[in-house]
Amino acid sequence: MPATNMSIPRPIRKIFLAVETAEGAGARVRRSIGTPQLRNFSPFLMLDHFNVAPGAGFPDHPHRGQETITYMLTGAFDHEDFAGNAGRIHAGDLQFMTAGRGIVHSEMPAPDSPDGAANTGLQLWVDLPAALKKCEPRYRDLRGSEIPAAEADEGRVQVKVISGKSYGVDSVQDLAYTPVWLLDVTIKPGGTLTQEIPHGFNAFVYTLDGTTRFGKERREVPRYHNVVFEEQGDVIVAENDAASGQDVRFVIVAGQILDQPVVQYGPFVVNSREEVMEAMFDYQTHSNGFERAKGWASEIGKSMVH
């Protein structure tokens, strides 16, 4: 929705580069949340901007206690889990996976990339409220064709409203248990975005293309950076200089702050050290949610076995 004269821009807390590192089996990842720069930014646990060539990937691995949101930017990705769920998302599509009490799955690049190009996307880990940590696992896919779009500033601002609201356009999607807004923004030269953020939500931006100016400070931020905002304020303001000569693109992510401790050990995200030990024991003994892991191996993960 357009900002009123009373709207207060959220100040910038920090800006930092997501440095590319190796992850999984042959994948390259730019991780921003989940690094010493930004450990836990409730409800967000991790943000990876991944780049995975065919033949690499994330073979069979467990999760407990969180949700993952995967947004494909280029290429396609396959997933398969021990409950018999399997599918493929393409560029512009998303998958919302709730691990709940336990899941083991595999995430691998689709083998049919026409030019052998890398498969790129964003994966966000979202904490689950303590009362839902032991829920049954589930998947929800969202196709790019189902995502509504908003326009503003005489067409210079375009927003894919994946979840949440922007300029009067509502995603009408309830895809995660923890309330999360996810907006994919493109601004043409000379355009300015003013995006409302709900109170009680933390918010950040991850930049994908071009150099964008953020906040009343008008800080210039190039691509592959995370811009973290303070909780105070009503809106995020971003602009693309009229003389830039290129579009800018970034995602805005905001989520309801959870008032609970976060104890993470690798793929297990719980609320106490005791629950970490319990998760490891349950996974190793195929119990309390991990029963179906016994003897299971994904078909798509077998491409990694040499």
TrEMBL record:
Gene3D superfamilies: Jelly Rolls
Chain coiled-coil ranges: none
Matching SUPFAM superfamilies: RmlC-like cupins
Superkingdom assignment: Eukaryota
GO molecular function list: metal ion binding
Family annotation (InterPro entries): Pirin (IPR012093), Pirin_C_dom (IPR008778), Pirin_N_dom (IPR003829), RmlC-like_jellyroll (IPR014710), RmlC_Cupin_sf (IPR011051)
Stretch forming the signal peptide: none
Key words, A-Z: Iron, Metal-binding
Protein name, per record: RmlC-like cupin domain-containing protein
Species in which this protein is naturally found: Coniella lustricola
